[in-house]
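MODEL INPUT / OUTPUT PAIR
PAIR INDEX: 1
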Amino acid sequence: MIQSQPPVTADAVVATFNQLFQEPEGAVLVAGASEPFYLPGQPSQVFFRADYVRSALHEVAHWCVAGRRRRGLPDYGYWYSPDGRSSERQAAFFSVEAKPQAIESLFCEALNVAFAPSVDNLAHASSAAALRTFENRIELWRARLLGGGLPRRASRFLTALECHDGRGISG
């Protein structure tokens, strides 16, 4: 009889990230935030919402994409508009989110966690066409990343996630 793996916990994701990156990169993953945020420092801190595995994977994907200069800025120097963005602002959001969400989807797949694109704008519904375009961009990025374009930190983290054996994640 085949036993299914128990779901991965946010604590296991945090432990894996911190084991891989605390020493060489000076970064730690931190659960329990009311809103996700990146704070550069010694160590830099990648905060994710509550204890949600998907939020952790999403924020790690952003950290993996950010270059050295961006990792020196609070929240990587990006703007954030709260819920209720205009169609133009939402289009800008979609343009910068496709690559990190493609990486997040690979992390989710490695852990058998359901992935769905995050539009992060519930008060202003995007058109079906805009959502399809965004989903297509994510798929295009997935194909590029799987074809050898995965950033080094994302590749290391993905390899560790793929070692998940039901008792924890090892790397």
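PAIR INDEX: 2
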Amino acid sequence: MDSQHVVIDVSLVRRLIASQFPQWKELSIDPVATSEWDNRTFHLGKDILIRLPSAADYELQVEKEHQWLPQLALGLPLPIPVPLAMGKPEYGYPWKWSIYRWLDGETAASAKIGDLVELAIDLADFLTALQRIDVTGGPLPGLHSLFRGGSLSVYDNETRRSIAALKDKIDAASATEVWEAARSTSWKHPPIWVHGDISAGNLLVCDGKLSAVIDFGQLAIGDPE
């Protein structure tokens, strides 16, 4: 993706905040310990989070999250990011960006988890609740979701190239068979909400328990499988 060589650093963020949200201009601004691939993320004081898309395609997620996350939060058993404000392009930064309330926790990728079974059950309850929320008007799979929730055929060429590149390290024939079986399936039911990136890095843990689910950039309605 074309990042237009935009430098996203504390200096830029400070200027954006001072210009567009002067009520927060006296708060400290610090990069988070581990930033995301599709966004550059910063602390604003202790209780606020700033996320700036790192490329043009990721800007498509901003308005979607501002529209849908507050509505989804009402029907979910765990906290999710809810936007506080939307920033606009300025000072050479070309895309819309977001401000959220900070959610405490350490990602499940590194946190000490008290009971893995309990965490799995809590995550299943969360996804079940998400899938029960009304999808009327929801965003169909597309570039904004990197086509998550859509047909696997979108990834066919990429997957076959990856299998070919790894043919000396994996059983390419078996991998191809599994891929073709997956690709032949299709969702036979009405679309439901799809988070799009349920990974350990997007699950927050506090006191050993699942405490929040974050990063809804790939949010769509469609096929959950």
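PAIR 2 NOTE: The chain is about 30% helix and 20% strand.
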